[in-house]
Amino acid sequence: MTTPRATDEVVDLVSRLIRFDTSNTGDPTTTRGEEGCAKWVAKLLEEVGYTTEYVESGQPGRGNVFARLAGPPDSDRGALLMHAHLDVVPAAAEDWSVDPFSGAVRDGYIWGRGAVDMKDMAGMMLALARQLKRDGVVPPREIVFAFLADEEAGGTWGSQWLVEHRPDLFDGITEAVGEVGGFSLTVDRPDGEVRRLYLVETAEKSLSWMRLTAEGRAGHGSFLHENNAVTEVAAAVARIGAHTFPLVMTDTVAEFLAALSEETGLEFSPDTPDLESALFKIGNLASIIGATLRDTANPTMLSAGYKANVIPQRAEAVIDCRVLPGRRAEFEATIDELIGPNVRREWITDLGAVETTFDGDLVDAMNDAILAHDPQGRTVPYMLSGGTDAKAFVKLGIRCFGFAPLQLPPELDFAALFHGIDERVPVESVLFGTRVMEHFLHNC
User: Fold this and answer.
1) Whole-angstrom Cα distance, residue 437 to residue 432?
2) Alpha-carbon distance 377 to 58, whole Å?
3) Closest CA to 47 of 143, 134, 132, 112
4) What is the distance of C-alpha 223 from the center of its chain?
5) Cβ contacts of 268 within 8 Å, gap of 6 or more
6) Which DSSP category does 4 fall into?
7) At 1, is the pLDDT very low, low, confident or very high (cuts 50, 70, 90)?
8) pLDDT tens across 5-47, in order?
9) What is the pTM of this model?
């Protein structure tokens, strides 16, 4: 009987992963499915000879699985962490054209919640971990495969807990590879050819959620009232929502824009008039890239009052803040000026920005893997406007990248699939990514 290769089983593995409803509501009492999914992953790894460790990260059912593939016994290189989260954001079935937890394979796509965020990479990792073990491969360095809980709620009961309470799980690890990188952006060159840029994530904005609170004097809604907590918070929210932070060119974004200009012959630089609008020439990814040009602070929640004719004593708002690397002090000073003296602020989630340089042996291995399977490809660094589990791992001094390779159809609005309705990933993209990741892991 022929031993199956990673490309033989990866589509089925991604589909089966999607069938586990691992919806993360942000509330530990209603989040479900991670334990069953993690134990299934552990079973498939143990089936081919791995010794796995299943860990619950601070709450019952918050399942994480770790497995190590040994490198050369005389190697002095640090281990590489390959990490994927198993939880997904919720999905309302009535909004979808397929059952979001069906893992349906049709029309050339694998459909379902988590297809791109990030059970596609989890499936590729699982398929390749199984193949490497079956083949008796000794990679250039030890590889740690980690399948994690709670990323979609900031990792409080996942990577953050593990780093704080079980740092031994990361012993020897110096570099890490995770999600939201390695996907292709097809651009037109001046010579009439096309270039596929594969965006390697080397930086992330912060993931910081701020609560604003104002307290005033309660009273009857019919009276004249000068000390109204609702008014104070509403005014602060309006000022924040209307504010535009200055354009800031970080090293990562500058390097990405320089590569984009070189390949397209178009001008993308800090001096480009209305740079954010100019970016729409590159298509649907403009929304992701544009969000990395400046800090953002978006009001997302308001809470006040309990009756129409009662002025409440307290009013609150939540602001979703995403801050560029190196901009924290300036950002906070601006927020303090905008909210004024009568509103108090506090961080309710605060995961800092991440940035590393686009160089070194690991980056070379990524580039070589892409070029081996796409001669028209080029790897370039970029910054993610959101956040990943990298925010936890950098606390241990681990250098983090996003590289889940996918060669995408140029017309696909990839950015819209993240947390979107009818989330799906092309079958051919997953097969391509598996081949690229195999090359990468053999040479990492």
Assistant:
1) 9
2) 42
3) 134
4) 49
5) 257, 260, 261, 275, 278, 279
6) P
7) low
8) 999 999 999 999 999 999 999 999 999 899 999 999 999 999 9
9) 0.94
